[in-house]
Amino acid sequence: MPFTLNGANTMQTFGLADPLLMKEWNLKIVREFIGNVGEQPIDGYPILGSDNKWYHSLQRIVDQNRSQNIITILCPFGWVNSNGEQILLAGLNPSEQSFYIAYKAKMKEIAEHFKDQTDVWIQVWNEPYHWNNENGYTHERWLRDMSEMVDNLRWVNGFHNLIIVPGNEMGQSESAILSHGKKLTEKRFNIAFDLHAYEKWLVNTNEDQLKERLASIKSNNIPFIFGEVGVQNVGDVMEVNHFLNAAKSYGVPVLGWLWVQNSQYNNALLNEQGEPNSSPSNNHWGEVYKNFLR
């Protein structure tokens, strides 16, 4: 079985997690939720955002992760407007957003700060475009937007860190990556792609089908991770074991959703006591994923 760097999604901008518990679970990568990109402090003390939430600095999070030899993916999830209202990035066409120019400027600031910290990877956007390729979506739009956001980071002198680029259909589809990924990476370097495993991977599929799908991506020599997998998205609780087995057999990195302590949330990996959040109501998600990480 190939050795793979697996991990989880975290929300440490709202409060640092227990690093020893992360080590116990064998987390190797964390993908950090940045819900207020514009006001998110990069270094220094926590700040109170215009949405009345406290935010810890990215450097503080990275330092703690690094103390356990954990790689950090910094991933933007939302933008807070001047009224203190959060706009989630999922499902949006990036370049059509009114805050897009300011967004790119802040992402460059983040790249500038972390350019000499190679254990920090930066994702350009979370779950872009309509889940069913509507709202004017085309693969050409994906290529144009992703190229622009990748180049925006690479224009930072000395920024050679890995850049993570999401797929289309809110990250659940590899079709844009397969058709236009090579064109994106042709004159660019150190790029990996991000897919998310929810309904379009978990529902009405079996392990053999998923292995075929993974083999197709692998055969194109495309580096990719599954930046999210969870048992629930917009519908009922889903089975995940067949997906985890397929991913493990191909050595594809997987990051579970979500490293929070909340037994009332089916996707939470932990309960309030810091134990796996595992019950019939969430298909024993916490225990299943902890076993997967071993």
UniProtKB/TrEMBL annotation:
Domain Glycoside hydrolase family stretches: 21-262
UniProt GO BP: glucan catabolic process
Xref: Gene3D superfamilies: Glycosidases (3.20.20.80)
Keyword GTP-binding annotated: no
Pfam families in alphabetical order: Cellulase
This protein's UniProt keywords: Glycosidase, Hydrolase
One MF annotation (Gene Ontology) recorded for this entry: hydrolase activity, hydrolyzing O-glycosyl compounds
Keyword Hydrolase part of the UniProt annotation: yes
Entry's family note: Belongs to the glycosyl hydrolase 5 (cellulase A) family.
PANTHER family given in the database record: ENDO-BETA-1,4-GLUCANASE A, GLYCOSIDE HYDROLASE FAMILY 5 DOMAIN-CONTAINING PROTEIN
Name of the protein this chain belongs to: Glycoside hydrolase family 5 domain-containing protein
Organism lineage: Bacteria, Pseudomonadati, Bacteroidota, Cytophagia, Cytophagales
